[in-house]
């Protein structure tokens, strides 16, 4: 199973991850083919359960369908209450990276459940990611950095697309980059929420490696030009 996001020792260019949440699901195959041809580096799949967040999107069956339609890495962002309960179905559906929220767990159980999920993902050969809501201190992920492929910094409140980037939340990115360098680990930083062609340069300057963009890509008159402009930051 392919696992994306590895930087190794090389300088890595910015990666653009179109979020399928903003795609037209009536023509999903065509939408995926379009962004793939336009140079997308990976696909971002937003899974919502109408409990952890107020919206409801899709589950493993759609992820499985996407897996059949593309060879691009599939970063699956689980905005759900019990990610450990649904880990196996998503792994079987073909996720490349399984990114879950630490806020899904209570304080007393957080460490044990996160440890268990990361161990199971490592055994399955699936990329491991942690996501943080806009108000969550970035220090929450520090104890797990040596076991992660990616950290996803939310710069909008999770649950809906098309929101404006919260500038204060972006300030956590350079702090995370500094800690990654201090620990000497290889972890990429994704930024998800309100990324546009107009602010992509600011997001990259903060230290992001992966820019998640939904409406900025699928809502553009020329999605290929939008991806090029975002990467050009």
What does this structure look like?
By secondary structure, this protein is of the alpha/beta class. It has a single domain, classed as Aldolase class I (TIM Barrel). The protein contains 9 helices and 8 strands. Helix 2 (60-69) packs parallel to helix 3. The radius of gyration is 16 Å and the shape is globular. The relative contact order is 0.18.
Strand segment tally? 8
Sheet/helix structural class: alpha/beta
Instruction: Tell me about the largest β-sheet.
Output: 8 strands, parallel
Helix content: 25-40%
Strands across the major sheet, in which order? 1-8-7-6-5-4-3-2
Strand content: 15-25%
Secondary structure topology:
Blueprint: E1 15-18, H1 28-37, E2 43-48, H2 60-69, E3 74-79, H3 87-93, E4 97-101, H4 107-124, E5 127-132, E6 150-154, H5 167-170, H6 172-183, E7 188-192, H7 200-206, E8 210-213, H8 215-218, H9 223-231
Parallel strand pairs: 1-8, 2-3, 3-4, 4-5, 5-6, 6-7, 7-8
Helix pairs in contact: 2-3
Summary keywords:
233 residues; alpha/beta; TIM Barrel; 9 helices; 8 strands; disordered N terminus
């Amino acid at each position: 199973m392919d696992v994306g996001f590895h930087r190794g020792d090389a300088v890595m260019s910015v990666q653009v991850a179109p979020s399928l949440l903003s795609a037209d699901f009536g023509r999903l195959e065509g939408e995926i083919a379009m962004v793939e041809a336009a140079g997308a580096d990976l696909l971002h799949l937003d899974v919502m359960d109408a409990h952890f967040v107020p919206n409801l999107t899709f589950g493993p069956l759609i992820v499985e369908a996407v897996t059949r339609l593309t060879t691009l890495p599939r970063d699956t962002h689980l905005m759900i209450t019990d990610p450990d309960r649904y880990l196996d179905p998503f792994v079987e559906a073909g996720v490349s990276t399984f990114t879950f929220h630490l806020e899904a767990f209570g304080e007393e159980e957080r460490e044990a459940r996160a440890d268990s999920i990361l161990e199971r993902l490592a055994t399955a050969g699936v990329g491991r990611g942690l996501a943080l809501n806009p108000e969550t201190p970035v220090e929450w992920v520090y104890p797990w950095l040596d076991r992660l492929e990616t950290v996803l910094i939310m710069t909008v409140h999770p649950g809906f697309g098309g929101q404006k980037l919260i500038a204060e939340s972006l300030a956590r990115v350079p702090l995370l980059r500094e800690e990654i360098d201090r620990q000497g680990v290889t972890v990429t930083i994704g930024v998800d929420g309100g990324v546009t062609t107009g602010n992509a340069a600011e997001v990259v300057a903060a230290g992001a490696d992966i820019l998640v963009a939904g409406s900025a890509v699928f809502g553009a008159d020329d999605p290929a030009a939008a991806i090029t402009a975002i990467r050009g930051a």
